[in-house]
Design a protein that fits this description.
Blueprint lengths: L13 E4 L4 E7 L8 E2 L4 E8 L1 E6 L2 E5 L4 E4 L5 E6 L4 E8 L7 E2 L16 H6 L8 H38 L3 H37 L5
Antiparallel strand pairs: 1-2, 2-9, 3-10, 4-7, 4-9, 5-6, 5-8
Helix pairs in contact: 2-3
C-alpha cells in the first residue's frame, strides 16, 4: 500500500479501514449530538482538532478542545455533543474494527438488534472489496478462516503448555535470560495465531456487511 497523507481540514471520512483499526476524521455542526452507543469489542480514542465538544462516557462528562484526547473502552456507553457555535472536527479510531461496530440502545436501555457495515457504508458504496463474490462464498471464507484459527490455537496451546512449565522453573531460579529465550521461542506460534484472528475478523466483516446490506446473493 502506498504511503498516504491525510489532512483533517480536507479528508472528513474514514482514512483507515482494517480489522485491526478504523480511523477517521469526523465533523459535527453546532447543535449536533451523536447517538449514545457502545462497542462490543472496540476501544475508541477521540482527539479534538477544531472546536469544543462535550463527551459523556459511562455517565462522566468532560469538555475537550483542540489538542485534547479522551478514551472510551469496550462496552462503555458514550456520546458527544458540540459546545458553542464553532463546528467540531475530531480524529477518532476504533480498535479492533469488528462488526457490529456500534451497539445501539432502546429508551429502556435494552440493546437493539445488531446492524453491520454501518460505519463503512459510504466507502462500500464507492468500492466494495467483496464485489463479485457470492454471500455463500463469503460464508465459506469465514468458515475456513475460523477452522484454521482453531487448528493454530490448538497447536499453540499444546506447545505453550510445556513452555509455561519451563518458564516457571527458570524464573524460580532467577534465570531471566533463559525465560526470555523461551518467550522468544513462543512468539512465532503466537504471531501465527493472532494473524489468523485478523483473517477471521476480515472474513467476518465482509460476510456481516454483505448480509445486512440487502445485497445477499
Amino acid at each position: 500500500m502506498p504511503l498516504q497523507v491525510f489532512d483533517y481540514r480536507r479528508d472528513i471520512k474514514n482514512v483507515v479501514i482494517t480489522p485491526e483499526i478504523r480511523a477517521r476524521f469526523l465533523r459535527f455542526e453546532p447543535g449536533d449530538v451523536a447517538t449514545r452507543h457502545s462497542h462490543d469489542l472496540g476501544a475508541e480514542v477521540f482527539l479534538i482538532m477544531q472546536g469544543r465538544a462535550e463527551f459523556e462516557i459511562e455517565g462522566e462528562t468532560a469538555v475537550l478542545g483542540p489538542g485534547e484526547l479522551c478514551f472510551a473502552g469496550r462496552d462503555e456507553l458514550h456520546q458527544v455533543r458540540v459546545v458553542g457555535d464553532e463546528p467540531v472536527i475530531m480524529y477518532l479510531s476504533v480498535t479492533p474494527h469488528v462488526e457490529p461496530t456500534h451497539t445501539m440502545y432502546a429508551e429502556d436501555g435494552s440493546r437493539l438488534p445488531p446492524k453491520y457495515g454501518h460505519s463503512t457504508s459510504e466507502e462500500r458504496a464507492e468500492h466494495d472489496p467483496s464485489a463479485g463474490v457470492s454471500t455463500a462464498d463469503l460464508a465459506l471464507a469465514h468458515f475456513r478462516a475460523s477452522r484454521e484459527l482453531a487448528r493454530l490455537a490448538r497447536n499453540t496451546a499444546a506447545r505453550h503448555a510445556a513452555h509455561t512449565a519451563e518458564i516457571e522453573q527458570l524464573t524460580a531460579t532467577g534465570d531471566d535470560a533463559g525465560a526470555k529465550a523461551i518467550v522468544d521461542a513462543m512468539w512465532p506460534d503466537t504471531y501465527a495465531t493472532l494473524s489468523a484472528v485478523a483473517r477471521v475478523e476480515s472474513a467476518w466483516n465482509e460476510l456481516a456487511a454483505r448480509v445486512d446490506s440487502g445485497k445477499s446473493g
